[in-house]
Specification:
The chain is α+β, with helices and mostly antiparallel strands. The strands form two sheets. Strands 1-2 form a two-stranded antiparallel ribbon. The protein has a two-stranded antiparallel sheet with strand order 3-4. Helix 1 packs antiparallel against helix 2. The longest helix is centred in the middle third of the chain and has 11 residues. The termini are close together.
């Protein structure tokens, strides 16, 4: 999962602002650390790779994306 570091903002339904940030998860340990960090925040967060989107707080979902990239 690799990105350019660009940020994208878009208004969502109900007036909630959405932010898109590109990240790079080098290995399974980085993916696990990412999920643990995301679990500290309230709200819903998604992680996407191509046409796949998973809950950023789900270790299984994030691992599935990482394995898809390998």
């Amino acid at each position: 999962l690799k990105g350019s570091g660009e940020n994208h903002y878009a208004p969502a339904a109900g007036g909630i602002e959405m932010k898109s940030v590109n990240i790079y998860l080098e290995n399974a340990a980085a993916a696990e650390s990412f999920v643990q960090t995301m679990r500290q925040f309230e709200g819903e967060y998604d992680l996407a790779l191509g046409s796949y989107t998973v809950d950023a707080k789900s270790i299984l979902g994030v691992f599935a994306l990482v394995s898809e990239k390998l």
